[in-house]
Amino acid sequence: MKYVSTRGQAPVLSFEEAMLSGLARDGGLYVPETVPQMSQADIRALHGLPYEEVAFRVMRPFVGDTFDDATFGDLIAKSYAQFGHAARAPLKQLGSGHFLCELFHGPTLAFKDFAMQLIGQLFEEALTRSGSRVTIVGATSGDTGSAAIEAFRGLDAVDVFILYPHGRVSEVQRRQMTTPVEENVHAVAIDGHFDDAQARLKDMFAHDDFRDGVRLAAVNSINWARVLAQVVYYFSAAVSLGAPERKVSFTVPTGNFGDIFAGYIAKGMGLPIDRLVIATNHNDILHRAVSTGNYTTGRVEPSISPSMDIQVSSNFERALFDAYDRDGNAVAQLMDELKSGGGFHVSQGALEALRDNFDSGRASEANTSATIAATHARTGELVCPHTAVGIKVAEEHRDRAVPMVTLATAHPAKFPDAVEAATGIRPPLPERMSDLMEREERITRAPNDLAALEEIIQERIRT
Ligand SMILES: Cc1ncc(COP(=O)(O)O)c(C=O)c1O
Ligand SMILES: N[C@@H](CCOP(=O)(O)O)C(=O)O
């Protein structure tokens, strides 16, 4: 299995190389050269299997010879052993034909744990084997950072720096990043918003001396391995609802487009997904792009679903690559326009290709609060604000003949203020985290400045 860059100018890599390098040398994102197929019989055979076995069968063809079967199976088993639900990604019925897929039973209470726990294991195995080390730098609007710190804390071969926007993550998210005591993890609060953090991360990858000097690695969804691990729960959910005999649709609360792109890959592998619905908050660049063809960035406005306060949505580049018939030059040109002019227009042909797979909708702040309240009143469930954005958009896009699954991307206790404001109920943290608010925090403050951030990292990495 080989991986190619969406901008067509970087070396073609193996799974291990793509995983350890993150962003391609030409600024693009790695995607598989071809998407492996699962037949109807392969999909039918997933019925009733434990999540770990589904994960093995879905991901195995993408990994090539990087890991042998026994090792890969063991790493998957270790990755999900800490999850608080036997089904790992259980389905819960919300109403007739509408289901939630609960992705928040991992150690940091958000869907990011599905991929991060796995790539923590994969990195450790690959680095131990080669005797090398890496410096991971991540950008977060809250959940990726906490999941990465949890997955990599205490590892000898890895130093981790997480850039998060100062004052723009929830207190629970911040404390999950700032209270771990291990010396190899660092939470860095930068002035600015998530897009600034992600832009500085990409600048570091474009700065070859720094990139090579610190052996820079990425754990954001620019890393293909992150997307791959997220493909699995589309299969487990669809099979539980009758695939391959029955089609299923998914609505995905979306920011950086990684999670929904994983659904697109599942569909490309043969899973009978009817519609993939992009659900955004008022930072709605993706909804505007799919409905009008204009991908134009605006100001990132804070919201009660802060993890989706994103305007420059990295993985959209992967979808564009396919929509432009895998023409890396065309994608590179669009990304140049984005950098120089803040946006681009998607060609008619590419827009039609995108619309073949994706629908989209948006939820205002009032919609989100009202959905948290209505869902609680109707079902007794407390949902996080990101999930509420998904539920609201899903209800608008449902074809009653096809089951709809909304991805429940975080636990409501990560965003207690928004949930309490909507329902009057403050969701408690699970017992194992009950002292989170008393633990001591360790925060580095930094300007939104490449040189300053690189200096902090260079001073702190262990050699
Ligand atoms: C809770 C939550 N929901 C949804 C999203 C959106 O996911 P993605 O960035 O993969 O689109 C994120 C992070 O981005 C998140 O943390
Ligand atoms: N919502 C994310 C933003 C980064 O997304 P990623 O999937 O590219 O890591 C977060 O919580 O940090």
Q: Mind telling me the CATH class of one domain?
A: Alpha Beta
Largest sheet: 6 strands, mixed
What would the CATH topology of one domain be? Answer: Rossmann fold
Span of the ends, CA to CA: 32 Å
Can you offer a commentary on this structure?
The model has no long low-confidence stretch (mean pLDDT 97). The chain is an alpha/beta fold. Helix 3 crosses helix 10, helix 10 crosses helix 11 and helix 16 packs across helix 17. The strands form 4 sheets. It has a 6-stranded mixed beta sheet, with helices on both faces. A 5-stranded parallel beta sheet has the order 8-5-6-7-15, sandwiched between helices. It has a domain of 216 residues: 3-Layer(aba) Sandwich (Rossmann fold), CATH 3.40.50. Helix content is 45%, strand content 15%. The ligand N[C@@H](CCOP(=O)(O)O)C(=O)O binds next to helix 6. Ligand LJ64HWYM binds next to helix 6. Its cofactor is pyridoxal 5'-phosphate.
Provide a brief overview of the structure:
This protein is of the alpha/beta class and 463 residues long. It has helices at residues 15-21, 40-44, 51-63, 69-80, 112-130, 143-152, 171-178, 194-206, 208-214, 224-240, 258-269, 285-292, 316-323, 328-341, 348-357, 365-379, 385-397, 416-423, 450-460, and strands spanning 3-5, 30-32, 91-95, 98-102, 134-139, 158-165, 185-190, 216-217, 248-253, 273-280, 294-296, 343-345, 358-362, 404-408, 444-446.
Short descriptors:
19 helices; Thr_synth_N_sf; Rossmann fold; EC 4.2.3.1; 6-stranded mixed β-sheet; binds pyridoxal-5'-phosphate; alpha/beta; 463 residues; binds the ligand N[C@@H](CCOP(=O)(O)O)C(=O)O; TrpB-like_PALP_sf; threonine synthase activity; pyridoxal phosphate binding
